[in-house]
Design goal:
By secondary structure, this protein is of the alpha+beta class. It has 4 helices and 8 strands; from the N terminus they run ββαββαααββββ.
Length: 141
C-alpha cells in the first residue's frame, strides 16, 4: 500500500462559489502513480465544502441561489452575535455542516471512477478569499 498527498491552493472571488477542481485532482492522482485505490479530497476550512455533482453553469447558479435561500446570510444566528457584524459568517458554517468537508473517489487503472456527469467541486461559503486549501490524498497500489 502506497500513499501520496498534495495540498492545493484555491483563490475564490464570490461569497458563495462552486469551483470545479476535477482536473487538478486528476493531476494529483497522476503524480501519485497509483493504479488501484482511492482519492480522498478534503477542505481545510470550516466555511467551505467538497461535493460531487454535474458541471453545469446554470446548475451552479441554481446551487448558489439555493444555498442563499436555505441559510440566509442575514439570519439571526448566535454565532454572529458572539463575533460581531464584521465576522457574521454563521450561515457559511451551517452550510458546511450540511454539505460536508470531504469526498472519496475510487481509482482504477490510474483514473478516477467518476460518472459521465460528475465533477468534484470546492465550494466557497464565506468568500471571497485570497487563499483556501484543499488536501488530496491518494492511497492504493
Amino acid at each position: 500500500m502506497r500513499q501520496h498527498s498534495e495540498q492545493l491552493s484555491i483563490r475564490t472571488d464570490a461569497p458563495i462559489q462552486l469551483i470545479d477542481v476535477t482536473k487538478r485532482v486528476a493531476t494529483v492522482i497522476a503524480n501519485a502513480d497509483i493504479g488501484e485505490g482511492a482519492a480522498f479530497i478534503s477542505t481545510r476550512h470550516t466555511t467551505t465544502a467538497i461535493r460531487i455533482n454535474e458541471p453545469c453553469e446554470l446548475l451552479e447558479k441554481d446551487a448558489v441561489r439555493f444555498f442563499e435561500n436555505l441559510v440566509p446570510r442575514a439570519g439571526e444566528y448566535l454565532h454572529n452575535r458572539k463575533h460581531g457584524t464584521a465576522d457574521a459568517n454563521a450561515h457559511s458554517h451551517l452550510l458546511s455542516f450540511l454539505l460536508g468537508a470531504s469526498e472519496t473517489v475510487p481509482i482504477s487503472k490510474g483514473k478516477m471512477q467518476l460518472g459521465t456527469w460528475q465533477a468534484i467541486f470546492f465550494i466557497e461559503l464565506d468568500g471571497p478569499r485570497q487563499e483556501r486549501g484543499l488536501t488530496v490524498t491518494v492511497i492504493g497500489q
